[in-house]
């Protein structure tokens, strides 16, 4: 590679890194507690615990679950119902003023075996809410997500350009060399390069999956236009429902259609994941990977009959696969520890890069000052 090409790649690496560094540092710092969100929830007492009962304890009807949840907030209506992938003892019912509301949510945790309300988790306050909001959209909604997505693209460019520069830089040095006997700047330059190449694959995976996650709202909207509109076309022009049929009957119909899958979450009529006339029953697989993937089953909210079901398109599948890869929450505690160590190393890479730029700038300014003084003399 000639000198001109090296300078071009160095310019790309410097400015793509500088523009995104502060925001990437913020994402790394806020991402650390999100890796351990369940453990922190237990520590803070915000995680809902289901009481111990026999494994074969019968479950109450979902109609009963909705009844007790709405009794807590009779001025609200159903929006979503969900369960944790590895715990079917709790139902989390999300209520809202309207199916399309963007605020005013309430969540009620109901024991799936007794139908008793166990807690009302706060969705819009607390330490983890602040960390999650900063990490996802900077409290700025879709605009914040897209901005962070652009910063993620710059990070990927910085990584690629850094790899291009790494080879020529390391020609005269053994891998892992840190010249700690020389100047502080050289020591941090060597550490920056070493940790950068060590975290290369992880940073690319997290960066690319992070960018994909910022497009979630847009991908769902496209899915509504692309597939959902076809699935609900027979109901076009029909009057809105004035009353909903049995939720339990709708879920039973979805389970009968997909007996080898588990219920993931339910979207009520009018929400972004279904139509004004359907319950959207989203079934999930039972294996570690397939449990992250959903298959929507649309059930007529009045009759309780299945009207359509399709495998999600590739772009939503990519989104769902990217989420566990981004947060490292698919391999238990060992994976979380690995993600934490790599996150910490990336913080050092970002911080050292910023330090090197500041030192280099001060050095250049000092040289320029000496030249000016020499010229004046």
UniProtKB/TrEMBL annotation:
Residues that span the membrane, as ranges: 15-36, 150-170, 191-216, 337-358
InterPro entries assigned: PepSY-ass_TM
Organism, scientific name: Herminiimonas fonticola
Keywords per UniProt: Membrane, Transmembrane, Transmembrane helix
Name the UniProt record assigns to this protein: Putative iron-regulated membrane protein
Keyword Protein transport attributed: no
